Queue: 3 jobs
Job 1
Amino acid sequence: MKHVFLIFFMNLLPQYVGKSLRRDDSYPKTFEDIKNEIAGYTGVAKAIIDLAVHGKAQNRSYERLAVFADTIGPRLSGSKNLDAAIKYMFSALQEDGLENVHLEPVKIPHWERGEEFAVMLEPRNHSIAILGLGSSVATPPEGITAEVIVVASFDELHRRAQEAKGKIVVYNEPFISYGETVRYRSQGAVEAAKVGAVASLIRSIASFSIHSPHTGWQNYHPDVPPIPTACISVEDAEMMSRMSFRGTKIVVHLKMGAKTYPDSPSFNTVAEIVGSKYPEQIVLVSGHLDSWDVGQGAMDDGGGAFISWEALSLIKDLGLRPKRTLRLVLWTAEEQGGIGAEQYYQLHKENISNFDIVMESDEGTFKPSGLGFTGNAKARDIVKEIMSLLQPINVTDVYDNADGTDIDYWMRDGVPGASLRDDLSKYFWFHHSQGDTMTVQDPNQMNLCAAVWTVVSYVIADMEEMLPR
């Protein structure tokens, strides 16, 4: 009997050579199988593109965003406007017929800038355009009047530490890139306080300026006394730098009424299309609903939030239901450091193995060029194949590394991540400034972004297997 079994097994062996059996006795898919599976979505991808770019949904994400931004306005963490925005979106998502629309409670920072202004008193009277930086302390009620020291770097500040005591430090750091230069905004007040400065004014982190200050969050250090801090326009920073280089004494009067309140209740806003076969598995698309308190927050991040909503709308309109659940999350308090997203992660991380991919659009919705992706080589190859479905609109590139404050928590734990890549050439002209309005947005470009976002999220959600990790 043993010999009969051995002969039977030997006859079967050739068909298993080079293959490993799964626990469910099915063969693992080869990459060629996966390529063929993705190619099968060509028709669906075309239908999504046609609906978003040419069909009845054309310009819909732009028009929805325009009504929202014009109605609500800017949406600072802890503000009544942000509360109104969340209520607005909760109702809108329900009216759109999406599933499991709900709010998940979180606590977020509440800071208000209050009245603020700055005036150069010497060598001449000149009104300085400022925007207080997030979490800044106020000046004394009478303000601060002090001489200015202008530096181009932290190194220069440290070399001239003795000169800085009792003065207002003005940073005139050159814009290299946002990632490189933003440290002056986030750390400028702390470094100035370390050398005894009474306030700091930071050249706006902007690649172009029309006398426009650009705000943003900044961080104090518990061991360093907090000093008032604000951003100023590129033009005023450069003017004071020229004056200083010529040896001219500069005196500035600064007054800021900023105040930090106890943390406020808020919500991450969630909606879904529930998966047909693996509903417990999640493909997450997202943008953040909060903004700074200037402009309309249309670009940062109204566009990203609304193309993420549009992805679910397009899929619903086409009568599609992917195998996995497609979940939309509109984050709260991203601008303060991903506060809402961190609490979402803590709440849901026990199910991390069910998160297939986390996607965030938070770098504008201008003309798209592709996708930033974080994941292993096998997952990247799959995403490249999926992006080939977007050849009809010529958006097929896959770049190294996804960017997104709100999805970083997941990516650090090994979940694949994706972010929209688009033309950023003008993004930092408007970023965190009064210029971030609907005028910046282009409906045709938003259509293309929505098509990219929808094709990628739908195909990943509907493929038979999750992305490898």
Job 2
Amino acid sequence: MAAAGAGGDTPQQGDGPGKAAPKATLLPEEPPQEQALRRSAEELRQEYRLSVCSKLCYAIGGAPNQVATSATAFFLQIYLLDIAHITPFHASLVLFIGKAWGAVTDPVAGFFISKSKWTKIGRLMPWMLGCTPFTIVSYFFMWYLPPFVAGRVMWYLTFYCLFQALTTLFQVPYSALTMFLSPDQKERDSATAYRMMVEVLGTLMGAALHGQIVASAHAPDRCTLNLTINAADSSSSVSNAPNLAEPLGLQSHGREVYMIAAGVIGGVYLFGIVILFIGVKERDDPYALNSDKAIPFFKGLRLTMKYSPYLKLTASFLLISTAVQLEQSNFVLFCTHAAGLHNHFQYLVVTILVSAAVSIPFWQWFLQQFGKKSAACGISWMIPFAVMLVTIPNLVLAYVVAFVSGLSIAASLLLPWSMLPDVVDHFRLLNPHAKGPETIFYSSYVFFTKMSAGIGLGISAASLEKTSLCVLMTTYGELITNRITVN
């Protein structure tokens, strides 16, 4: 029985390997062409893979622009009012024209960059290297208090416009550089994630570093004096009537701390561009064929403006960017003057940006789980809390608003820059022979965002002339009356 059983099992065991053997022999027998293609694809994947060092260098290279932009967004308005003694109307004029000028330079920068030729260091890198020294100079003089009074408005308007134009010449090629780091979508997404995290940290660094340096220039006793000076300026033209004399010590201290802050951020610019140049390699357009010619700028612009997904994306985040920048610029001013939180304004700014930085991983997870469109709801979280702060101004609520605002700002930063590469990729699939449309997409997007933010910020700042300034003067007038009565 055992022998029979063994003999009966033998054919089954022999049949089993006999049937499996052909399958085993078929798997390795891959056509030589497919094997070569597979090896070639793997080699290309290894070649286009970005190291962690390259991603960090790319992210750090864009941080200085975020540092300077954050400091400007949070503190330029209060600097013009408290240190330069420019009236709210003229301050709004400087902010609006500067933003509008920066927006106009976006398509102009896109035009010239699209015409530039390939060099040994790339097509985009020379623009970033060339404009950085001039950006540092314009940023420093934007925070310099000139000894004359009559031409201060023109002084700040000139250097603010120059700074906006130069940051555009850096930001447009830097943003488009994402598409030329690697043709691998996963590598580009990873580099974008590094960039967003470092940009949020750069925004935090700009507000925190600048805020800590200049905090002593906005003491409560200075606010009372500055309101009196600005009130006198409101009844006369800045270009024809001098400001009231401010104590020399206060004026000198405010000028010095703002110049120190400008010098520190100028050093950050130098560090960032050196890291970017050393650690990042720009590749020639890996998506177009060698026979393809660069798409003419105006033809590409027409195609861009007719591309429905891009128009929807731009229109959505145009309004979102306006709201976020309005809240970002006026939150510090409101807490300093209207809510009486003079000693906490720099900590409120830090709270906003720490909240934004730590919530980036959460929003990245949310995007992957629920989609990018669903994450847009997080941008509106700050609205009810901001309304509560206006109606019930107190310290605890101010910190709650700062934290929730950071969550909304993080979503507004991550969403557009994670969706724009998807839109560009889809456009390239529909137009495979259109070489070099990336700078057109990025410059156009930044143009609409800046224009909308400039209009909203100008309207908001101009409203201080007839509403907020009157309320603040009444409040401090009562405070002065109480002090006189006590004395």
Job 3
Amino acid sequence: MNHKIWRHSSQNTTKHVEVNFIEKVASERHFYSSTSCSIIWFLSWSPCWECCKAIREFLRQRPGVTLVIYVARLYHHLDQQNRQGLRDLINSGVTIQIMRAPEYDHCWRNFVNYPPGKDAYWPRYPPLWMEVYALELYCIIFSLPPCLRISRRRQKQLTWFSLSLQNCHYQMIPPHILWAAGVIQLPVTWR
């Protein structure tokens, strides 16, 4: 089993990091139809619809490859093409998850080039924000209307998250996900 860590940044290129990775792996590795492997991928943003299409094509040509993608944030999650691209990836067998604290910590410690002495800086997004992104990913998976709105104020680098849930969200999203995002409170029984 090879646990090789591959680092790459999409700086100084016109291609997204997902396409760079696919091209590099395809050029360096010989995948035979009997080859089986698992790839765990940590991304700052979820793939756009075009990258989702490229990932699906890569996996279609390599049926023995399984892929798990951990993302820190959802890329243009209100764009219907991006939402459909993520659903198509999931329907093709790819696992997509929002990073939780352990994955974020692993990603930070193994892949981020932080300045010396700054390794304790973690996380950029508080755990509640991770839960809110997870909630929106559920909306995408279940083809529900978006419930997450994000607004940023550039001068002060502030980010606001607001949730707007409809009845369909409460009916389709598991209660433990709504609870983790602080949307509902679980009933308490006193004896």
